Amino acid sequence: MIIIRRFNTDDAVTVSEMIARTLRVSNSADYASDYLEDLVLRHSPEFITDRALKTHFYVIEDGKEIVGCGAIGKIPGKEDESRLYTVFVSPEKQGKGLGRRLIGALEKDELFIRARRVEVPASITALEFYKKLGYVPEYGVTGPDANGLYRLEKIK
């Protein structure tokens, strides 16, 4: 059974490991391995726990296994804008509608509802996924930024 629930600190190691696996498998065709390994190191259990303290962080469980995560947070200094963070679905569960369900849960969160505008830094790997969900290039910029990410937004 699939459940989307809020993160708790006991999830940090499992979420970090799931993100590492996803980066190494799903993003390897789009990014250099040294770049991905830097991201793996960055998404440590401590980083995940800190991110969860600053955002509304969710996990997807399939049975007792965590197979996805995502967060929404306020953009500092902007009361009517939010950002999606740390959205991942494990490689073996991609293409089964879990990412869509996760974004649906994030879009029901109070931080999405209150926002006039929500942005997401999308990887090359996830770009088309977000576009299918109605996110468009921020400020009309269609290319990646210096970090290889596409800045997308949804204006309500």
Characterization of this structure:
Strands 1-2-3-4-5-7-6 form a 7-stranded mixed β-sheet, with helices on both faces. The protein is of the alpha+beta class and 156 residues long. The longest helix has 15 residues, at 12-26. The protein has 6 helices and 7 strands, in the order E-H-H-H-E-E-E-H-H-E-H-E-E. It has a single domain (2-155), classed as Gcn5-related N-acetyltransferase (GNAT) (Aminopeptidase), CATH 3.40.630.30. A hairpin with a 2-residue loop joins strand 2 (56-62) and strand 3.
What is the compact description of this entry?
By secondary structure, the chain is an alpha+beta fold. The chain has helices at 12-26, 33-42, 45-54, 98-106, 110-113, 127-132; strands at residues 2-6, 56-62, 65-75, 78-89, 117-122, 136-137, 150-155.
Which geometry do the CA atoms define?
A: globular
Q: In CATH's first tier, which class applies?
A: Alpha Beta
Low-confidence stretches: none
Order of helical and strand elements? EHHHEEEHHEHEE
Q: Describe the biggest sheet?
A: 7 strands, mixed
- At the fourth level of CATH, the homologous superfamily is Gcn5-related N-acetyltransferase (GNAT)
Strand content: 25-35%
Here the CATH topology equals: Aminopeptidase
Domain count: 1
Average of per-residue pLDDT values: 97
- What structural class do helix, strand and pairing data support? alpha+beta
Strands ordered across the widest β-sheet: 1-2-3-4-5-7-6
Report the end-to-end length measured between terminal Cα atoms. 32 Å
In percent, how helical is the residue content? 25-40%
Please work out how many helical segments DSSP would assign: 6
